[in-house]
Amino acid sequence: MKSAPLKIGIACFPLIGGSGILATALGSELARRGHEVYFFSYAQPVRLDLPQDNLHFHRVDVAHNPLFPSPDYTLPLAVKMTEVARSQQLDLFHVHYAVPHALAACLASQMLGPSAPRIVTTLHGTDTTLLGQDPDYRTAIEHALLHSDAVTAVSESLRNQTQQIFGLKRPIEVIPNFFTPNKPKRSRDEVRRDLDVTDKFLVLHMSSLRPVKRIDLLLRTIAMSKNRQRLRLFILAGGPFDPYEPMLDELGIRDVVIVRQNTAVVDEYLQAADAGLYTSEYESFGLSILETMFYGKPVVAFNVGGIPEVIGDSGPLYPFADVTAASAALDRFIEFPNLARELGERGRTRALKHFSADRILPSYEALYHHVIGTFEQGPIEKRM
Ligand code: GMT
Predict the structure, then answer these.
(1) What pLDDT digit, counting tens, does each position of 30-68 carry?
(2) Whose C-alpha in 251, 349, 372, 378 is 20 to 30 A from the C-alpha of 60?
């Protein structure tokens, strides 16, 4: 069913990281479906291609006023959201993260009064898993969640954790992340030649390298492989790798690891890879895992957070920190390419079935229409 066009303001982080990537993909898909989308952030989101029909980007200047002890982003963001909502008559704000985006939306809503856009807040993890336990933030997050017209979480696991940590009575709808592959600009062979891995088994890891990603376990998994001279670990790093440099020598894997920094376009590397390796101690979802699945590559990961909801029955997961099992799984892929291909194909089938834009976008559109009261989409209790 085609949804009536809406005017939607999206606030998100612009840098490499799943929440900004998801918000950007969502905005682009909504624009393609005829909605008018207005992005708010302090920089252009890395995967936001402009110009595009129906897509607008509003840069928010971080305030460096000497009156304040630190730069301020939340107030300038709230002011920009207010101005654009007023001039464009936005129907709703869809904010990714309670801090600071939902709080800025709440303030904008107060400044705008009765004509304010509705607020949909999507939780991606940190609001619950880190800030939710921090007494300096908890009350503000609770306020943002209670004053949003709808709250979504990217997995059942995150929803349950949020309900538990905040003791929330309000419903939280689970709308999983999605991914739309972009046609790679270079062929698999070209990329593999460029990386000098033509005869190697290429293991891909993409992340911000934050402590939660457990890069120590990632490197140990590689170091334990029986086939480590036949493989290369290729890290697409969204954060500094320097803290892990010493481990390369300690583990004797310097010649096995290739690191590329801040690469926004990942499709050609996904196509060039043979498997994905993710060793996080927690993921609310694991968008990189989904991206890997979309390219038909088998994934080795631990059974934590929302990862089982993404992988489903498409392959095994391993107990957290069991680097022996993770390494043995990689060895099996290297020794039995048919097994790797079969698991990769199962992952791809699952990704296409459950996590494509066509599958997920209607849930967001239905929720938007529900909160602004313009659309009947079955009993809401079932969806919340
Ligand atoms: O995990 C990161 O380093 C980035 C973070 C973000 O906010 O961009 O990712 C979170 O949101 C993603 C999109 O929903 C999820 O796929 C990631 O699992 C989640 N990260 C964590 O929960 C640690």
Answers:
(1) 999 999 999 999 999 989 999 999 999 999 999 999 988
(2) 372
* Ligand 1 contacts CB of residue 128 (under 6 A): no
Q: How many of the other CB atoms lie within 10 Å of CB of 354?
A: 16
E strands, 75-132, are 92-96, 118-123
Q: pTM (2 decimals)?
A: 0.94
Q: Is 155 in the pocket of ligand 1 (CB under 6 A)?
A: no
In whole angstroms, give the CA distance from residue 190 to residue 167.
52
d(Cα 172, Cα 153) in Å, to the nearest integer? 7
Domains for the chain: give ranges and CATH numbers.
7-178+357-373 (3.40.50.2000), 188-354 (3.40.50.2000)
| Rounded Cα gap, residues 311 and 315, in angstroms | 7
The rounded distance, in Å, linking the Cα atoms of 8 and 117 is 9
Ligand 1: residue of 285, 290, 310 to mutate (most ligand atoms within 8 A of CB) is: 285
CA separation for the pair 80, 142 (Å, rounded): 23
User: Of the given ranges (84-93, 123-132, 147-156, 336-345), which has the lowest mean pLDDT?
Assistant: 123-132
- Among protein residues, the one with the nearest Cα to ligand 1's atom 12 is 18
**What's the confidence (pLDDT) of residue 381?**
37
